[in-house]
Amino acid sequence: MKMSASDSSMLRKLRRKFVAVVLGVAAFILLAVFLVLLFTTKAGLENQSKQMLTIELEKEEYQKGPALPKDSSKDLPWKGGLARRERSPGVQDGRFLLFSALLDEEGNVTLPDRGAFLLEELEEETLEELVRYAAEGKDFGVIPGYHLRYAKKQTEQGIKVAFGDISAENAAVVQLIRNSLIVGFFALLVLFGASLLLARWAVRPVERAWIRQKQFVGDASHELKTPLTVILSNADMLLTQPAQGQRRWAENIKAEARRMKSLTEELLSLAKLENGGAGLVFQKVDLSYLVTDSILLFEAAAFENGKTFSYEVEEGIFVAGDPAALSQLAGIFLDNALKYGREHSEIAVRLTASEKGRYALFSVTSQGDAIPKEELPRIFQRFYRRDPSREETEGYGLGLAIAREIVESHKGNIWAESANGTNIFSVLLPRMKGSKASKVGKKPF
Q: Which of 31, 227, 334, 401 has its C-alpha lying 20 to 30 A from 49's C-alpha?
């Protein structure tokens, strides 16, 4: 059955929602991972820088370098904040740039010898202002305009301030953000392609169920249409011509009503099985006895149809299942063999244990019209008939669909084989542990 434009549109919307949900969840996870990575990396670099500044402050040796005048900041050309330097010192000669300065009680700023290189980068007034700015701030701080982190400590000589260049730290964070954005973009791109494939795979069961539902409604409507038409036409005849053929028309109504009742019961049975096997009561079942009993029930029907039964049943084969459902399964196989089997042919029923004894194999073999190979997977579908012209003698096409649901609810497998006019329907069910089978020879029935 082909899907309509509205159905296709609904499935496309469902796929788009699936893709959107997958990408949304993936983007949230990637963002969370990148944020954690960013904060931990930034915190690690910051702690490392602070440790180096602390080590610098703890150094006892302090070789005095050039002293900057106390009032050198009087004629600074900038106001309202620290001036930004044009070029960050960064890493010089492959080493982290680290230096300290001392602000004594008289307000003089003294630099060590190894800090003299800063005079090439900064004016003396700016460098002095940096020291004073840090001395008035917190124990640890950052001067963003200069890419410097500082730490201060009160000593006997005055306030000792250590500076560290954080240009490399900032560059590492920026590079991490850039790499994260690139990785995140390509990851989402790959996930988008994967989610498109997953959407098709995930929606496929919904699509199949939707098609099956529409086919079920269409087939059920078709099956119910015929008996309803017969009932209505016969009822009209009774109303318009009450004196003629009342009994015949009443019998027609009764026959079609029974047909509708049978169809309704099969539909309800199939619906319950498809709903997770609702109503099934699992217990220990003697499958050997159940199959033998089913053969006895169909013996009279086989005799009337000119057919015979032969069987090979191993005793003591037990399974965990619902007795009524398993009996219905056996009845469906035997009934199909009687309906479709060739006249005066033999129907062979076999129940044996598998080689390792873990499964029970139940099969019914009959002689009749060969089933085309391409149709074998379809015969277990609802309302499937190989020859629609014989629908009145072949039921409603629900028997094998019910059999499939019964087997699946018992965690088994069902299949059909056909070759050279021999049709074999087989079922494999898990056996209960501890059951032992004893073989019984082939006997006619």
A: 31
Q: Which of 3.30.565.10, 1.10.375.10, 2.60.40.3080, 3.40.50.720 would CATH assign to domain 283-444?
A: 3.30.565.10
d(CA 172, CA 59): 28
The domain limits of the chain are: 1-73+83-213, 214-274, 283-444
**Residue 107 pLDDT > 50:** yes
Rounded CA gap, 386 and 289, in Å? 33
Instruction: For the chain, give the number of residues.
Output: 445
pLDDT > 60? residue 286: yes
Distance CA 287, CA 151 (A): 86
* Mean pLDDT (whole number) for 284-307: 89
* Separation of alpha carbons 198 and 417, rounded Å: 34
CA separation for the pair 197, 22 (Å, rounded):
12
What is the separation of C-alpha 191 from the centre of its chain, rounded to a whole number of angstroms? 14
Dump pLDDT digits (tens) for 51-87: 888 888 887 654 444 444 444 443 333 333 343 444 4
